[in-house]
């Protein structure tokens, strides 16, 4: 395990990694809430009753 830790430390050092700089995240922008779509108030044509099939 010590060999693995040493290898990881060596690899990080070769890449120039170390303590990373931490930046503050920008505040999220406030957006207007979306309104649900309104249903149209127009009445649809009344459905005709289903026809009965004629049997021969």
Description:
It contains one helix and no strands. The longest helix is centred in the first third of the chain and has 14 residues. With 56 residues, it is mainly alpha-helical.
Over the alpha carbons, how many angstroms does the gyration radius reach? 35 Å
One letter per element, helices H and strands E, the order comes to: H
Outline: elongated
Fraction in helix: 25-40%
Task: Give the number of helices.
Answer: 1
Overall mean confidence score, pLDDT: 76
Largest sheet: none
Q: Beta-sheet strand percentage?
A: under 5%
Structural class call reads mainly alpha
For the secondary structure, the number of strands is 0
Stretches with pLDDT under 50, minimum 5 residues: none
**What distance lies between the first and last C-alpha atoms, to the nearest angstrom?**
87 Å
From the structure above, extract its key features.
1 helix; mainly alpha
